[in-house]
Specification:
42% of the residues lie in helices and 16% in strands. By secondary structure, the protein is of the alpha/beta class. The protein has a seven-stranded mixed sheet, sandwiched between helices. Strands 1-2-3-13 form a four-stranded mixed sheet. Strand 7, helix 10 and strand 8 form a beta-alpha-beta unit. The longest helix is centred in the last third of the chain and has 23 residues. It is globular. The chain starts with a helix and ends with a helix.
Length: 445
Amino acid sequence: MDRLIELDKKHFIHPTSSIQQQQLEGPKAIMKSGDGIYLTDTNDNKYIDAMSSLWNVNVGHGRKELAATAAKQMESLAFSSAFSSFSHEPAIKLAEKIAQLSPKSMNAVFFTSGGSESNDTAFKLVRHYWKIQGKPEKRKIISLKRGYHGVAAGATSATGIADFWKMAGHLMQDFYHVKSPYKLSAKESLLSLRQVIQEEGAETIAAFIAEPVQGAGGVLIPPQDYFIEIRKLCDEFGILFIADEVITGFGRTGKMFGLEHWNVLPDVMTFAKGVSSGYIPLGGVVISDHIHDTMKKKSEGVLFHGFTYSGHPTAAAVGLKNIEIIERENLVENARVMGEKLYQGFLDLKHKVKIVSEVRTLGLLGAIELAKNPITHERFSPTSNVTSKVIETLHERGVICRGVTYGGTDIICFSPPLIMTEEQMNSLLERLHDALQAVQKGLLT
């Protein structure tokens, strides 16, 4: 065990982690196995994976049929390039399946290895769409503050959380951020978008991108009519609407895709995470028939965009089997039902724990927000480290979840596997209650 820790510190640069903290303390835990909603580390500590690791293990850990599917595909065709119009059955069938699940009039899919690649691809495709129509000046991308779209160059620039920009020191040109409806009215957020469109000129704007629910920003659920008005605004100014369904896709919110809650159709939809439940890297972009038809007519020569693993046959086979499991076990409906129980549990916590200020869920995607004064919503000072205390106290009680402190907030996020049972939900809520009470007691003493 000590050797693993030293090897980790010496050789493994962890994503989205503190390098200095790693060197001082070593890895937070070294996981050795997963089963259902649980993870077990090398010290045999068992945890409820209340974040589905990174919002993505929708069907739960330890699915042997996914491993068997990958092995079978590897034995026949582990990898074959999809460049230069080469193809293979798993990618063709997965593209067909995703088209069937997607909103109407969205039938063409470009595959990637994850969410960041998917959003970068979406930006390039919408710019290409305008360029082949003689409008190369339509390049600008507008996104929401507190939105998260990945860490590739374009995706980082679209992300509306400044902490991610600071790492490399700058953003790419032609990316703009407008006010999120978080802590604001929908009207004020929409006005912010309209103002940027008018200031920059609609003739220079390619697309607007948003998550149906802002995940990494703190599980921020929009007002009821927000995306209906976003769709109208995009149509009014001739701007494409990209729905980032990387977190919300494949049942997470109690619908197959998050935007279905408001019956709004995007022009482009990006996905990843739940499409393979994290068993293998996979993502993609779905485009509308109108965009695809325009490209078929006007995109001449080679489309110079693609990743080595675009349409990876093993990843595609696993994705197909994963979707089969989601449908066979009715996990979208289970996410809806268990999501209601999660919300009721959160409401109960709000009544029992003074520092719980707000609660929200949409399917099995939820958050509790903490405040020093839940009535006035006065926040804790950053030096209180309330969020990190709750996360650590939960860890001690065998729960892994995620804290969000951007902009001075104290938010605890939850995104458990869609297979969760009522008994498991009760266990999670009991541990959460105990952790919050322990932290609250410490703050008052």
